[in-house]
Design brief:
This protein is of the alpha/beta class and about 325 residues long. The protein has one domain (about 5-25, about 55-325): 3-Layer(aba) Sandwich (UDP-N-acetylmuramoyl-L-alanine:D-glutamate ligase), CATH 3.40.1190.20. The chain contains 10 helices and 13 strands. The strands form 2 sheets. A 9-stranded mixed β-sheet has the order 5-4-1-8-9-10-11-12-13, sandwiched between helices. Strands 3-2-6-7 form a 4-stranded mixed β-sheet. Helix 1 runs antiparallel to helix 10 (about 320-325), helix 4 packs parallel to helix 5 (about 170-185) and helix 9 (about 295-305) crosses helix 10 (about 320-325). The radius of gyration is 19 Å and the shape is globular.
Amino acid sequence: MSSIGERLRAPISRFGSATVLIVGDVMLDQFVVGRVSRISPEAPVPVVMYERDEYRVGGAANVANNVRALGGRAELVGLTGTDGASARLRMLLEQRGIGTAGLVSAADRRTTTKLRVVTDRNQQVARIDYETDQEVQGASEQAVTIQAEMLAQRSQVIVVSDYLKGAVTATLMARVVAAGRARGIPVLVDPKIPHIDYYAGAALVTPNHYEAEIATHMRIRTHEDAVRAAELFRQRARCERVLITRGEHGMCLFDGAEATHFPAVAREVSDVTGAGDTVIATLALGLAAGAGLNDACNLANHAAGVVVAKFGPATLSQQELALAVDGA
């Protein structure tokens, strides 16, 4: 094992004593799985013969799931309805040992649910979304904010996972940043561009390649383009640092003074769904376990290389991550 691999293994061994608070849009992912053997005579669509249902946690809940899968402690703050999907989501979270005390139920909202019809060969046929995506207001917004401030008191890092489903508001974001500053802990944001003005003061924002292009009105084709985009994004978001995830081109970190590039390490790509959740979860856990920012980014880069070889919003174990960094 190289000296870099040894250095990266050290924070992994401390994941079990680290706590990450995840605030944002929680979701339930439902997969209706079946076999396709013919095309419908009614329309040019495949007929799926039902076999089974599968359920997974998604959105901010998948970030928490990634933290737990890596051995860390995860507290989750978000918004659900009072429907059956909310009950199932809470059950799945509790089964995984994820703290659910911060989940707020609102009778006037649906629990965000993505129902995917897929074949037994993991080919997606259709997706149906159930959601209420208006920004939360009033008592529910206040309740979510209070939960975030309370749970920040026993966390080492805060992650805001914004999917534009209504939980993340300007008020919530400002209070979360203030809570992080008061505690002296970093606030990391997985962003959505319509909310870019909300993220002022965050320690790190992690747009993907396409989000960075949209926010900066520029094409990113080279490392130099990525650095310029990260600089512009940082100025617009008024955050401290930017990490652009660039798929097969790796990641670009810009801290206001210099840029660091992390080359992609994926050997096989099956499905990139949820890879951003894995990146920010691993990054947060690395920082919570005492790693420097560059080492935490390196860990996140290796974690992404593992999960993109899996189907759907996947996770990886502490052992899988340790094996991945052995060759670093």
